[in-house]
Amino acid sequence: MVELALPRGSEVKAGKRYPASKEAKRVRRFKVYRWDPDVGGNPRWDIYDLDLDTCGPMVLDAIIAIKNTMDSTLAFRRSCREGVCGSCAMNVSGRNTLACTMGMDELPGGTITVAPLPHQPVLKDLVPDLTNFYAQYAAIEPWLKADTPEPQKERLQSEAERSKLDGLYECILCACCSTACPSYWWNGDRFMGPAALLQARRWIDDSRDEAKGERLDELEDPYRLYRCHTIMNCAQVCPKGLNPAKAIAETKKDLVERIV
Ligand code: SF4
Ligand code: SF4
Ligand code: FES
Fold first, then answer.
1. Which residue of 8, 111, 174, 187 could cross-link 89, Cys pair, CB 3.0 to 4.6 Å?
2. Nearest bound ligand to CA 130?
3. Which domains occur in the chain, in start order?
4. Whether the predicted pLDDT of 46 surpasses 90
């Protein structure tokens, strides 16, 4: 049987331990991925025994408490704390999610493992490099394209036309879906990934947009679109309850229908 091993530099080693104070009554253990580009070397798992009475109920509350009270060197992204900005996306106990909307009580008991979104270069600790992800978003040209002269007021849509955007416009570009997709892991440089493809669909389906053919042309490629094999990880992890796989399937259907 073939045995796969991580390159030596990628092995995550045991790290430091940060015990809770003796007075702490409700303690939960966090195992957190750490890597500092200024230090280099292998990444490590640091262990923090956090006093839950010092923080709120969400995973992000716990991470902020760790940084504020136990280890100020921990790096992570966050902004809104409301599941709106997408910046706190990370892998919590094996699942990509938003740390700010994931309650600690929603996770299985015991240690909570926190790591950066998978299969992206790590800038530091829990901060992934999403340069490629954002470049793919830019590549789908996420703006209205129309040759019809601008009307005096707004471009109108019927209720039915507007409702076609439900399930698409709510995407917050957190990258949970793309970084959970096996096809994206192996071909992230050429496969657009579920987030960018859902966003592409948001414009293809917009009744005011007049570039549907051009947008489909751009996606008709063995890698950009067709590397989706309907594995459905994307729909399972999306913290906004969206279904990128369905959006991708609709785009594939459009491409078939314009041939026949
Ligand atoms: S359905 Fe497609 S995009 Fe979604 S996880 Fe699977 S392969 Fe990736
Ligand atoms: S589709 Fe969902 S998981 Fe993917 S980027 Fe948008 S909000 Fe995040
Ligand atoms: S901090 Fe904005 S989505 Fe979590």
1. 174
2. 2
3. 8-128 (3.10.20.30), 131-259 (1.10.1060.10)
4. yes
